[in-house]
Write a structure and sequence with these properties.
alpha/beta; 274 residues; disordered N terminus; two-stranded antiparallel sheet; 43% helix; 10 helices; single chain; TIM Barrel
Length: 274
């Protein structure tokens, strides 16, 4: 039987790439474990899902923060706590005008360890309201990132308040890749997560405009699942596998940075014993 060598070589290379990708760790920069998930998915079960997905690190914020603390206690080697302003669901739009948020955050920051404040939602001129300004101040005082679900305007306003702020832009602002690139060029302390987006890849192939963004800024993107409802927890493994699939369409060094190295470089120290 005659075997076409070029086909065999391509098959072998594909097999090697597939195996390497399957083993690629993932750093998930955008997870929530809010109060409506606790009974349906106890902490041990939630951590089992994270480990099954092959996560190297999992940044978790929750409404309320008790959920984050539950997961951190269960898996301090894996879970990286982020302090969300919301004490319960329904505060997404009201928190920016709720002065009681500030003492809540101050109390939690005195008690627990975090790498960031967020994910919080703020848009446009609301970023200049006193509560949000205090959040930016607290991040500076405690040397924390801001995980901001915002339009570009609100991101710019937060950097105007603190030019040295470090911001992880949730969902890359749901903005177009050319706008994301422009923001990354303007702000050296801006990183972007890709949570709850699928426009950057389809059928295992990276969109050309997003490819240009990844190639220009390979050290500024992270992946994320965004478990904003309890049901989304059952998508964590599938999302990690989908991520590994489209990352094979990028150069290996770029793929590894986006998959886990950027997250570890920026936030991984939280996993080290203090």
């Amino acid at each position: 039987m005659k075997i076409h060598l070029s086909w065999l070589g391509a098959w072998a290379l594909g097999l090697v790439a597939s195996c390497a990708t399957a083993a690629m760790p993932i750093f998930d920069s955008h997870l929530h474990y809010s109060h409506d998930a606790w009974e349906q998915l106890p902490p041990k079960a939630a951590v089992d899902i994270l480990r099954k997905a092959g996560l190297r690190g999992a940044m978790v914020s929750s409404s309320s923060d008790d959920g984050t603390q539950k997961l951190f206690a269960e898996a301090p080697d894996l879970v990286i706590p982020v302090l969300r302003p919301y004490r319960q669901r329904g505060e997404i739009s009201s928190w920016v005008r709720d002065a009681s948020i500030v003492p809540h955050l101050e109390s939690r920051l005195r008690t627990n360890r975090y790498v960031a404040i967020g994910e919080y939602h703020v848009y446009g001129a609301d970023a200049d309201l006193p509560v949000v300004r205090r959040v930016v101040e607290l991040a500076r005082e405690y040397k924390l990132f801001l995980h901001s679900h915002s339009d570009a305007d609100a991101i710019e306003r937060q950097f105007k308040q603190d030019p040295q702020a470090r911001i992880l832009w949730a969902h890359s602002g749901f903005d177009a890749p050319d706008k994301v690139r422009a923001m990354l060029r303007k702000y050296k302390n801006l990183w972007c997560d890709l949570a709850f987006r699928s426009d950057h890849a389809s059928g295992g192939k990276v969109d050309p405009a997003w490819r240009a963004a990844f190639m220009e800024f390979p050290d500024r993107f992270m992946v994320g699942t965004d478990t904003f409802t309890p049901e989304r927890w059952h998508f964590v493994v599938e999302h990690a596998n989908w991520t590994r699939q489209w990352l094979t369409d990028l150069p290996t060094d770029v793929a590894e940075r986006i998959a886990y190295k950027n997250g570890e470089a920026v936030f991984g120290s939280m996993l080290k014993p203090q």
